[in-house]
Amino acid sequence: MREAKEKRHFSSLLRDANSAFLPSPDTDDEPVRVGFVLLEHFSMMAFTAAVDALVTANLVRTAPLFSFCTFGLDSVMVKSDLALDISTSGELTLLPLEGEEALDILIVCGGYRCSLAEQPLLTAKLRAAAKQDIILGGLWNGAIPLAYAGLLDQHSCALHPDNHAFARERFDKVRVSERVLVVEEKRVTSAGPSSALEMMLALIEQVQDKATVRAIREILSCDQVADSDEAKLVLPADDPSFPETLRNLLRLMSTNIEEPLSVDELASFVGVSRRRIERLFQTHMETTPSRYYLELRITHARRLLLQSDDTIVNIAVACGFLSSTHFSHCFKDYFGISPSQARQKQRG
């Protein structure tokens, strides 16, 4: 029953992918087009981690930021490492590398049992993609086809540890890294499922912005398991890598949405200067405290807008905006459409 449920879920997900490349209805900018080449026995976990980052990026912004499609080497159906047959958008011969529907990013998804032999057609397609200046990536051992194509010469790459010896022996111009992910301007590689997500977040930050990545992390890392054997919800204010003062500031902001505190009030509560707060946010969040606070309130407002039947006026007040006009202006600046349009789109 679990296998059937997973198969229905992924079939639905991939049917959506097959209708990719539609222009955004809310903006003149088209979504970034991402293609995945699924090797036989590819890692389902690595693939879905990568796709989840793209889908979540679209959820945290009203206008779609990404579209994706999938390709098999010589068949529309590809068997994953879970023995599930996955329907792709098409065979590798259909890979769009030129014209209006050309890909912006192409990622090869490997897995523990994937063949390490060269696939001549894939080699040719990767070289053609490189000539079009398409960003190329690999999940698990997906870097190996890139190496066969000579596209990792003098580059570092991340691979699953089981493939390190093979890659070092076979590709003497490739620097096999001990790191779980390597992100360069036009080459991105990761060694497994967890690093696949981190690789995609780094890539999203590269082609979009840090604010989008922060929003994705807030959603996808909420059930992160701590070092103990007890699982707990993890919020930005609980991030152990942040200084205690910053964590206290984030808690104050998240618990004072309806009546926002000024930066001077925040400084008074935590016992540091305004300048110190600004430096903390710039160093660790790469934004200003005011901008972060606004993002926090506006994304909270969007959840209420889409998940409740409350009026826009009440939502504006609940999220600390002086008026519905001010709220609508901030919302449109951030999401690209008005609150009423966002609600109408969600329910339409």
From TrEMBL:
<keyword id="KW-0804">Transcription</keyword>
<dbReference type="Pfam" id="PF12833">
    <property type="entry name" value="HTH_18"/>
</dbReference>
<feature type="domain" description="HTH araC/xylS-type">
    <location>
        <begin position="247"/>
        <end position="345"/>
    </location>
</feature>
<dbReference type="InterPro" id="IPR018062">
    <property type="entry name" value="HTH_AraC-typ_CS"/>
</dbReference>
<dbReference type="InterPro" id="IPR002818">
    <property type="entry name" value="DJ-1/PfpI"/>
</dbReference>
<keyword id="KW-0805">Transcription regulation</keyword>
<protein>
    <submittedName>
        <fullName>Helix-turn-helix domain-containing protein</fullName>
    </submittedName>
</protein>
<dbReference type="InterPro" id="IPR018060">
    <property type="entry name" value="HTH_AraC"/>
</dbReference>
<dbReference type="InterPro" id="IPR029062">
    <property type="entry name" value="Class_I_gatase-like"/>
</dbReference>
<dbReference type="Pfam" id="PF01965">
    <property type="entry name" value="DJ-1_PfpI"/>
</dbReference>
<keyword id="KW-0238">DNA-binding</keyword>
<dbReference type="InterPro" id="IPR009057">
    <property type="entry name" value="Homeodomain-like_sf"/>
</dbReference>
<dbReference type="InterPro" id="IPR020449">
    <property type="entry name" value="Tscrpt_reg_AraC-type_HTH"/>
</dbReference>
